[in-house]
Write a structure and sequence with these properties.
The chain has helices spanning 4-16, 33-49, 64-70, 120-125, 148-153, 200-212; strands at residues 54-60, 76-81, 85-86, 91-92, 101-110, 127-137, 158-163, 177-182, 185-191, 222-224, 232-233, 239-244, 248-254. Helix 1 crosses helix 2 (33-49). The chain has 255 residues and is of the alpha+beta class. The protein has one domain (4-254): Fumarylacetoacetase-like, C-terminal domain (Fumarylacetoacetate hydrolase, domain 2), CATH 3.90.850. Bound molecules: hexanedioic acid and magnesium ion. Residues 58, 60, 103, 105, 135, 137, 224, 226-227 line the site of magnesium ion (MG).
Length: 255
């Protein structure tokens, strides 16, 4: 019998103390996907017990670019807590991370709860605003290597996120250019259409997957649609900026 509580403590400590751990699946802890989501729930519960609260959900592997980069092709989700939010223009400190990477995303702000099987049009009715966003992923596994249950147990690598100015969702955001730059040099260029053909489909997927888990997306939450391009490694001193067509920009620095 696998002790899921012990594994939850193991992955939570790795993230809390920014210490790389061996892949679960390589060290005799081969989880099923439902067990991996249970480990994620238990590990994030440890964060809640330390005073953090859930403020949203992030989707993973919603673009071909991300699937190819990590060699996995199933949509996954993780939990965002309040301490993960970095203010736009703010700083992150490398010492709080193992080997962070950054990827460009679209974020949704919900005004109404959303749950279960919904159409894109129904999902849209719950959206208060959209924003360009950057997710800082930091797999706790050595060499950023994992299989699907490993990454799910590790709260899908999420570690921090930055959200730009919220804009009304009545613009057509199905195919907007996204340019992520490091110190003014473009390092990834993509389109919001890389996210499942339309980022709204990531919100539909979030409602479905979280619903299957017995939960729902809450009003006031932020839903991250998933990386539109491959992620790029962060190093000290970088200034990272995402410019999203018709939406504005978002940035942060690394110290
Ligand atoms: O947005 C994403 O696709 C993040 C996936 C999380 C897993 C990872 O790439 O570490
Ligand atoms: Mg992401």
């Amino acid at each position: 019998m696998m002790d899921l509580n012990a594994i939850a403590e193991f992955v939570d400590d790795a993230s809390r103390y920014a210490k790389a751990i061996p892949q679960l699946s390589e060290t005799g802890k081969d989880l099923t996907l439902p067990q991996a989501y249970e480990v994620q729930r238990l590990s994030v519960q440890r964060r809640y017990d330390r005073g953090q609260r859930q403020v949203g959900v992030k989707m993973g592997f919603t673009s071909r670019a991300k699937m190819i980069q990590m060699g996995l092709d199933e949509m996954i989700w993780g939990r965002l807590t309040n301490v993960m939010l970095v203010e736009d223009g703010g700083e992150i400190d490398l010492k709080n991370f193992v080997h962070p990477r950054v990827e460009p995303e679209i974020a949704f702000l919900l005004k109404k709860p959303l749950e279960g099987i919904v159409s894109p049009a129904e999902a849209m009715l719950s959206v208060e605003a959209i924003a360009p966003a950057l997710e800082i992923i930091d797999s706790r596994y050595e060499n950023f290597k994992f299989n699907l249950p490993d990454v799910v147990a590790d709260n899908t690598s999420t570690s921090a996120y930055v959200v730009g100015p919220w804009v009304r969702p009545d613009i057509d955001f199905s195919n907007l250019g996204m340019v992520m730059s490091f110190d003014g040099r473009a390092v990834q260029i993509g389109s919001s259409a890389s996210v499942l053909g339309h980022p709204l489909r990531a919100l539909v997927g979030a409602a479905k997957l979280v619903g299957e888990d017995g939960g729902r997306l809450e009003a006031g939450w932020t839903i991250m649609a998933g990386g539109a391009t491959a992620a790029e490694a962060l190093t000290s001193g970088l200034h990272v900026r995402l410019e999203a067509q018709n939406m504005g920009s978002v940035s942060f620095s690394v110290t």
